[in-house]
Amino acid sequence: MLVTFTTDAYADITMFGDVALAMLKMMGHSATVPGAILAADVPAALNRLSAAIEAGEASPTAEDAAEDAVEDAVEDKDSDEPAVSMAHRALPLINLLAAAAKAESNVMWK
Questions:
Q1: I want to staple 57 with a disulfide (CB 3.0 to 4.6 A). Which of 51, 52, 88, 96 is the partner?
Q2: Range(s) of the domain holding residue 79
Q3: 3-state DSSP helix/strand/coil percent for the chain, to nearest 5?
Q4: Rounded to an integer, what distance in angstroms lies between the CA atom of residue 109 and that of residue 3?
Q5: Could you report the per-residue pLDDT of 33-76, keeping only the tens digit for each?
């Protein structure tokens, strides 16, 4: 499954479902797809996601699920590739949320 985050203030961001759901939970939202954050609530969601990433609070199950999804998509010959951290995966979504907060725009995902 893929999840696409959209706002009028930034380009769409598409993520693997497991990673997107983990980030939604870090923002304090349920893992319901589709969903939305009202413009007034975007700064708080951005703060919660940033704090969780900085504190390394990404739950082990969420990181394991994200890594498993990546491993399933990669053939054995590429198994020596380094795993992409949740902090790196979160950067596009953090940028989207920051732009939406600045423009006072809603954020939706489907």
A1: 52
A2: 2-109
A3: 55, 15, 25
A4: 6
A5: 999 999 999 999 999 999 999 888 544 444 455 555 555 554 55
